Every structure is written in C-alpha cells, then in structure tokens.
Amino acid sequence: MKQLTLLFGLLLLILTKVDGQSLDKSNREKLIVFQDSLKEISFKMLNDSIEPQRYNASFKLIKTLVTALKTPYSFNFEFDSLKTISIQNSPDQKFRVFTWHVMNNDGSYRFYGTIQMNTSQGELEMFPLVDYSPTLKNPSDSTYTNSRWYGAQYYKIIPVLKNVESPYYMLLGWKGNTIMSTKKIIEVLHFKDGKAYFGKPVFDGDPDNLNKRRIIFEYDRRATMLLNYENAENRIVFDHLAPPDQNLKGKFELYGPDFSYDGFKLLNGRWKFISDLELKNDSTEQDENFNDPKKMKDL
Q: N or C: fewer beta carbons within 10 Å in the chain?
C-alpha cells in the first residue's frame, strides 16, 4: 500500500510539473478574448462587400493572431471556435498551420498563413507564409521557402516519418483560382536548417508527374473534386479530371471528374501513382467545405 501511495504521489508530481509548463488559466483567458476578436475580424474579411475592407481585415487579423500567439504556450490553445480560417495540427504535434484567403472582386484569391512550431519552453517560433503565386513560374517543378509560398488553404496534414532520411509532411489544400476555375493541391512540407520548405520530388509511377515537387489540379469552378487521404489504405485519393470533349484538352477551366479515381500510395517513403482505384468511401463533408469559399461564409 505504501508503495502504491508513493507511486501515485510520484505520478501526481510529474503531472503537476507538466501542467506547470503548459497554458495557465490567466493566459487561456487572454487567448479566449483574442479568439473572439479573431472571429469578428475574419467574418468581416470574408463577408465585407468592399475589397479594400476585406484586405484591411486580413491585415488586422495577422496582427491580432501574432499578438495572440506570443502568449506563452499558445500552441496548447486550440482556437476551436474560430471556424473561418483553417487550423491544422500535424499528427505528431510538431507544428500547426494557419491558412486563410481573401477573395478579390475579379474572382481570384490571395492566401495568407503561418506555421507555428511547438516549442519546449512555450515561446513563439513561427514561419510566416507569403503568397507569391502570381509570380511563380512552373510551380509544379520548384521548391520554395515560406517567404516565397505557393499559397493554399490546407485541410489535411499527413506525416511521412518512416523509411525516409528526413521526415516530411504532405498537405492537402484548396486553392481558389479564377472566376472560371478552381485548383486543389498536394503539397510537400519539410524543415531543414531552421527553415520551412515547400515542394519535394517524392512522386513516382506517373509520367505526367515525374520529378514533380507538388501536384496541382485545376478544374471547372462549378464542379466538385474529391482529394482526400485514406488512412487505412495509406493513400491519397482523388477524382480523375478530364475535359468534356477531347477537342477541349488543355482547357482546364472546363475539366471535371469523369467518375473514375486515381491516387498515390505511400511505399518506402515515396508516393506511387495508382490509376483506376475502387473507392469504398464517398467524399467527406470537410472536403466539400473547401470547394467553394462562399460556403465558408455561412460559418
């Protein structure tokens, strides 16, 4: 009995020590106030009818978010009621990614975001994401840093930690494009020498994607595209996109799903292309949310 009591006391001491290194009550209350402000700002960012006002709201959101994240151990605060921007934690809890968009009057978009690292002392370490999409040539073939980012709004993080020299992460994202077409993206994120890098040649088996550092899909804005991860099968699955007529090949703003599915399966740290997959599950409700940003306004 004495040994059991001693063991319980030791466990309680360990838990108390861990809790002392986490977010305390006072800081949590501060972050709740910040969260309420962010909800109000982001609502205006999505809904204001005047484009400059939407951008002003986004800039204000950036300042407010950075101030909030400077709170010690802010990584432990989930911002779970902030639904108007995407917040994705890596499954290994090494980092999380905040991403959002501002829609322009012409139907195009600009993306914003930051990566927050999970630090042992609770201090803020982050990599701001600066969208350079309009100036980037051949984005499928290039690696960029966070300061020269191919912007997107991410909704899934898939860690690749085994059978690789250095770990990396696959990001699935929505990337609104123009009034005619939408894009989705399979991005590759890795960290090296204190920097965040996007893009890595980890795709095999498909001549069209040979040596590609990210996969970019473009299709008719009126269509819905599945791009999701099946954990049980360890694979990324997606609709096969095709033009309505072979004479329209290359006009991606007219492409749509042809009711067949392709994918990338993780094998020995790389992603092998597989065509004509038979899927057991339909697209998820979360995937639908990222097809059209107008649907996010109702949130």
A: N
